[in-house]
Write a structure and sequence with these properties.
The complex is a heterodimer of chains A (121) and B (106). With 121 residues, chain A is an all-beta fold. Chain A is 0% helix and 50% strand. In chain A, the strands form two sheets. In chain A, strands 2, 4, 5, 6, 9, 10 and 11 form a seven-stranded mixed beta sheet that branches. In chain B, the strands form two sheets. In chain B, strands 2, 4, 5, 6, 9, 10 and 11 form a seven-stranded mixed beta sheet that branches. Chain B starts with a strand and ends with a strand. In chain B, 36% of the residues are buried. Classes of the chains: A mainly beta (121), B mainly beta (106). Chains A and B meet through strand 5 and strand 10 of A and strand 4, strand 5 and strand 10 of B.
Chain lengths: 121, 106
């Protein structure tokens, strides 16, 4: 059974940083791209970033480009999202998600439970 | 960037009703479209991918159709467990979600 578990959320000040982690199990982690998707309170889903299985190719949404970095450690079955220069509008639940197929650009078939990031002074 | 527009934003329906949600892409995306269901406080769940392929374990009352720029999600007979918010997602060029359609009890 695929399991994804996010951690690292919490309260951060505007301009601050946070690093989110997502521990994965139940599948061959290094084979699949992994993504982050966020959802602001009461709002819809917004794709944030995706990283290929090898870690060689990254994709970022326009609203976070230049401020976040996605990375992975395939030896630890973990994907990370380093978030810098945080803004109030980054406040959201951040979900980690597995891409459905081996090729990178596919939908997301498994999701974690989410971790809440609150940016406030 | 590809924009995805869903309609309606909210839909009121009764158990047993046939429900249809529409999703339009701002440019051609072939059939690279998925549908998700999300309940309050829960992570989204994939229902359909490649516009019309049902994900394993998803009830057959859910179906998807369309290609190019216009797509639909249909629930043939709405069940109590189906009251939720539904999102379309294009994955032709990166990923973009629609704004969501909330299906509520009439």
């Amino acid at each position: 059974e695929v399991q994804l578990s996010e951690s690292g959320g919490g309260l951060a000040q505007p301009g601050g940083s946070l690093r989110l982690s997502c521990a994965a199990s139940g599948f061959t982690f290094s084979t699949y791209a992994m993504s982050w998707v966020r959802q602001a309170p009461g709002k819809g889903l917004e794709w944030v970033s995706t990283l290929s299985g090898s870690g060689s190719t990254t994709y970022y949404g326009d609203s976070v480009k230049g401020r976040v970095t996605i990375s992975r450690d395939n030896s630890k079955n973990t994907v990370y999202l380093q978030m810098n220069s945080l803004r109030v509008e980054d406040t959201a639940v951040y979900y980690c998600a597995k891409v459905r197929e081996v090729a990178t650009i596919h939908p997301f078939d498994n999701w974690g439970q989410g971790t809440l990031v609150t940016v406030s002074s | 960037d590809i924009q995805m527009t869903q309609s309606p934003s909210t839909l009121s329906a009764s158990v047993g009703d046939r429900v249809t949600i529409t999703c339009r892409a701002s440019q051609y995306i072939s059939n690279w479209l998925a549908w998700y269901q999300q309940k309050p406080g829960r992570a989204p769940k994939i229902l359909i991918y490649k516009a019309s392929t049902l994900e394993s374990g998803v009830p057959s009352r859910f179906s998807g159709s369309g290609s190019g720029t216009e797509f639909t999600l249909t629930i043939s007979s709405l069940q109590p467990d189906d009251f939720a918010t539904y999102y379309c997602q294009q994955y032709n060029t990166y990923w973009t979600f629609g704004q969501g359609t909330k299906v509520e009890i009439k």
